[in-house]
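Our collaborator T.R. sent over the components below with a one-line note: 'Predict the complex.' Nothing else. No constraints on interfaces, no templates requested, no preferences about which chain binds where. So this is a plain run: every listed entity goes in together, and whatever single assembly comes back becomes the starting point for the next discussion.
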Amino acid sequence: MSNLYGGIEAGGTKFVCAIGTGPDDLRETRFPTTTPGETINRAIAFFREQQQSLAAIGIGSFGPIDIHADSPTYGFITTTPKPGWANVDLVGEITRAFNVPVGFDTDVNGAALGEHRWGAAQRLDTFIYLTIGTGIGGGGLASGKLLHGLIHPEMAHGYLPHDRARDPFDGVCPFHGDCFEGLASGPAMEKRWQQRAENLPIDHPAWALEAHYIALALMNYICILSPQRIILGGGVMEQAELFPMIRREVQQLLNGYIHSPEILERIDNYIVPPGLGKRAGVLGAIALAQAIV
Ligand code: ADP
Ligand code: ZN
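Returned assembly:
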């Protein structure tokens, strides 16, 4: 059997495809997410061009997706508001093209698995990986297993306290308005402040508000899941100043109640960027492939 794996990070904005075994030997390509037919065909063409046999392919996908093996729509992207992409049989298309085992999970569960194998979550058994970009998504492991459950976590669609005196913005989530994603995704920042997040200066009040929402969400995750670490990735977290602001506010919100030195003394090591940087997603897809065989 081949010892090479394929990985597809299926994002709402771009796809990243790679072949390899881990961080040291990855060959990758990236292209924009257009129509399902065109985009999936580009992914298939990439793997064919490599002319290597693959042991398995892993797909970490934007969602919501169906990851229940006994479901008739297993492997589908299900209810996404992204035009054209609802009810797309992603796993079916890749399986028919290559006839190898296909590992399938959310992009963030994939990234969490990659971080567990090679990145910032090595040797941990319970942690969260959160991406804050075009959307917000969360995944992770609990007691050593990827979080699945009823569907899969949708950590960014819960409500947070929304002080409309401080922030009158209604939010952008098409399902919930001012849920966490609706208030704090990149597009939410852009709509609220009328400029893209990367163009907002660091002394702009946007950042304190963004840190506030992220800290509120992390407080909930800490109280519910008791994660040993929280990894924050995605385009918005490229604003590195957010990290100290979030850490400080998480400590303030918890107010000494969770009695762990990880939070009280070592929070710089508790709320961290991905160890794999921007490659967390695609390496996560490789890790999903390795997990299926
Ligand atoms: P996606 O979520 O589509 O995979 P990203 O994780 O790159 O893509 O997130 C894109 C979002 O991140 C956009 O809303 C963009 O405005 C924002 N963003 C990109 N770069 C930065 C930056 N340096 N600082 C703050 N926000 C950024
Ligand atoms: Zn929502």
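Summary for T.R.: The CA atoms of residues 63 and 77 lie 6 Å apart.
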